[in-house]
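Hey Z.,

So I finally got round to the 6-O-phosphono-beta-D-fructofuranose thing we talked about over coffee. Here's the setup:
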Amino acid sequence: MRFKLTIFQRAAPGRPFTFPGVRPSAVAAVNEARMRKLYVIMVGLPARGKSTLAQRIREGLEADGRQVAIFNNGDLRRRLLGAMSTRPEFYRPDNAEGRALREDLCRRNLERARQWLAQGGDVAILDATNVSAGRRTLILEELRDHPALFIECVNEDPLLLDLSIRAKARLPEYAAYSEEEAVASFRERLGYYEAMYTPVGDGPERFWIRVDSLANRILQEQPCEASPMYPAIREVLVCPWVRSLYLVRHGQTEFNLEGRIGGDPPLTPKGLEQARRLARHLRGERIDWLFTSTRRRSHETAAPLLAERPDLRCLALKEFDEIFAGDCEGMRYDDIRATMPQVTMQRNADKYGYAYPHGESYAMLRDRVRRGVMRVLFLAKDRPIIIVGHQAINRVVLALFLKHRKEDIPYLNVPQDKLYHLSVTPQRKLFERISY
Ligand code: F6P
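And the result:
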């Protein structure tokens, strides 16, 4: 009996069990059983992509045959406390009642997570801000039976934060607020979270990963190598994740007919018909977000789609504007050849690296298009997307996913009557070109 008591003595939070006087093989077996399951604790300010990442981790691990469940404090809060927990004062660090209620919600989810693992689950993901060291100490005190891996999401892109906050303001919990009131209220709440923020690594946690949730990049980690789930989680964090992306080039323009580059020309009648065909072709396909460039030809191509789908969320991004040809904007390829032969010659010699005088090269496009794609994927939160781009832009988007040699990128085929459909996760690489 005494022996059994020793076996089941509690380990310090996050530490393996130690058993004085017990055979090392028995200790190893207990520790192995302990490591077979895992708590994943999300950390980060609101609107940093924690829930999207939590869902991806669940999907990635489930594909490996693991049983995974997510426990979200926000959902529980909205269900149990309703409107009183929407007010920013609820989050003020010196509001003892608010703190006690939030802690109670946290404990409820910790209990549910513990039950989940005890009853056969492999991984319990706790999705909440968990930004204070005190909260994370509480979690570690409560969850001693299996290791806890903390995943902190950071992302300070001002455009995304602004759009994400506006999206929060449209949630049912803000139904009684005007948009501006909701945004102001949410920003005040954010300020309270910022005031109590301790980054992972500076808190009590032993295993942690800090992730740039915009770039899908691990910034720093204190790995939990002994967990069999760790490699799959890492893979999810760094893999491009595109549920469904349609990539289309705008329809035919006046400039295309004349062989001119750049500018802001309208579509021709044929281009307008291509745009209508595109909308018809995609009928029945789920698309939640539409991204265009800021150019007229991109908007005109998107217009029939938008007309058919009033709920489609839509955003024009400068990152998707066509390659800027500088001094050659609006010129015909023939005129450039005749009047600026060195441009044609140098561009032919290195089309990827050559920048138009006062303009851009494909090499320069890469960074801005990448930023655009990252923004798009963050905002759409794994929901189906369409991008209506341009010839050079779409080449660069394709190359981001298909890993072409850089010198081949400027020659990828981007027709105006075909769309590309991509779906990329660690489990799935789909790439198809479809006529419409
Ligand atoms: O010709 C249409 C166009 O979109 C131009 O505006 C742009 O300069 C060009 O394609 C990019 O293609 P390339 O790099 O092959 O000239």
